[in-house]
Design brief:
Elements lengths: L1 H10 L5 H16 L19 H15 L3 H19 L4 H16 L3 H22 L4 H21 L6 H8 L7 H14 L3 H10 L3 H25 L2 E3 H7 L5 H18 L22 E5 L4 E4 L1
Antiparallel strand pairs: 1-2, 2-3
Helix pairs in contact: 2-4, 4-5, 5-6, 6-7, 7-9, 7-11, 9-10, 10-11, 12-13
């Protein structure tokens, strides 16, 4: 089964309705079995092969897929599946299932582009169409609200705060602002656009949806760096344990390790001249047992004592 769909993916072919359903079920089985699907041995030379070119193509195909991880191969399958469905223009419960699984699986494995494509189609086309033809379907409505919240959050986190995508989307659907999941996403947007990092960290802690939290993590690192720079400008000394809690680290040691790594990476990128606004640590090699961060001005150096 894998060999057949691998060849289809290589040819970038459009799947028939039957093959779409087969591939979807195959993907579900792969995911549920943690990828433990039988893979045939590499192709050997056979006398009955039609042509040498065909043999070489198959061997090359094998080599390409042998270097792919199980997750990457699954995501490639999802891409081919959703593209095939898009080409047919079909709107059905099967379409919903395929795009929903694609969106969630790709998000869980940090393939944000494919996840965003699937969520966009779900939020803008598939669910509205299904709800028009299936009135009073409460389960479908609940699913739609969850997708809308995640889609709205996706636009906010992936785009610059000045981007008009979310504004135009909400203007065309004014009732969406009353949906609980969308309200939460708009609060995140407000925290990001106003650079209110304390508010962003608080919302991150309040978030109960694992997928939304996973998406917010893509902005968490950036928020930590910016928030720490504001702290650096505002304090002469501050307890490291307090900063670690403020920036949502599990403990002080994790925070100090992050700080060391962040400084090291930034210093590598600016070997010749370190911008003043960046974190500069000249004597910060062993800091695990330290308790207080001291910002010494001028110059703009940071030491731990």
């Amino acid at each position: 089964m894998d060999d057949y769909f691998r060849e289809v993916c290589t040819r970038n072919a459009v799947l028939s309705k039957l093959d779409q359903e087969k591939l979807y079920q195959h993907l579900i089985n792969r995911i549920e079995n943690n990828g433990q699907v039988a893979v045939q041995a590499p192709i050997q030379n056979k006398k009955n092969q039609k042509t040498k070119n065909n043999q070489n193509r198959q061997v090359t195909q094998r080599k390409v897929y042998s270097t792919m991880t199980k997750e990457n191969e699954n995501m490639l399958y999802f891409k081919v599946l959703t593209q095939s469905i898009l080409s047919t223009g079909e709107m059905s419960l099967f379409t919903r299932d395929a795009y929903l699984k694609s969106a969630y699986y790709c998000l869980e494995h940090s393939e944000l582009k494919q996840s965003y494509i699937s969520l966009t189609r779900l939020a803008r086309e598939i669910y509205p169409t299904l709800l028009r033809t299936s009135e009073h379907d409460q389960n479908l409505s609940i699913e739609y609200e969850q997708v809308l919240g995640l889609y709205t959050l996706f636009i906010i986190v992936q785009n610059d705060e000045s981007d008009q995508s979310i504004t135009s989307f909400l203007r065309s659907n004014p009732n969406l602002v009353h949906i609980k999941s969308v309200k939460f996403s708009l609060k995140v947007m407000n925290a990001i656009s106003s650079k209110n990092y304390y508010r962003f960290f608080k919302l991150y802690n309040l978030c109960v949806d694992d997928r939304s939290k996973s998406l917010m993590q893509t902005y968490l690192k950036h928020s930590r760096v910016d928030a720490f720079q504001y702290i650096q400008k505002s304090y002469y000394s501050i307890p490291a344990s307090y900063v670690s809690k403020l920036l949502l680290f599990d403990n002080c040691e994790e925070f100090l390790n992050w700080l060391n790594k962040e400084v090291e990476e930034r210093n590598k990128r600016h070997k010749d001249k370190l911008p003043v606004k960046l974190i500069d640590v000249s004597s910060m090699e062993v800091i695990e047992d330290k308790e207080t961060i001291v910002f010494k001005r001028p110059p703009n150096n940071l030491i731990i004592r």
